[in-house]
């Protein structure tokens, strides 16, 4: 059942792309680049601390670097940076 669902989703996305649809980025590219940099730095610098502490530090640094960004956008950028390969 999962395979059928996956094929249908891929087929639907392919048809949408042929029709001109393009995915909209969730956060600004500059915000995501900064988030990746801060996450990497904080992971190395605060290795023994909790994840909540590291997230708060990254969020604070990101909002200091990008004061125009909304807090929810900065938090999403951090989550995407943490989960990125």
Commentary on this structure:
The protein has 85 residues and is mostly helical. It has a domain at 25-83. Helices cover 73% and strands 0% of the residues. It has 4 helices and no strands. Helix 2 (29-45) packs across helix 3 (51-65), helix 2 packs across helix 4 (71-83) and helix 3 crosses helix 4.
Key terms for this structure?
0% strand; mainly alpha; elongated
- Content of β-strand: under 5%
The rough form would be described as elongated
Provide mean pLDDT, rounded.
93
Number of helices: 4
Describe the secondary structure blueprint for this structure.
Elements: H1 2-18, H2 29-45, H3 51-65, H4 71-83
Helix pairs in contact: 2-3, 2-4, 3-4
Outline:
With 85 residues, the chain is mainly alpha-helical. It has helices at 2-18, 29-45, 51-65, 71-83.
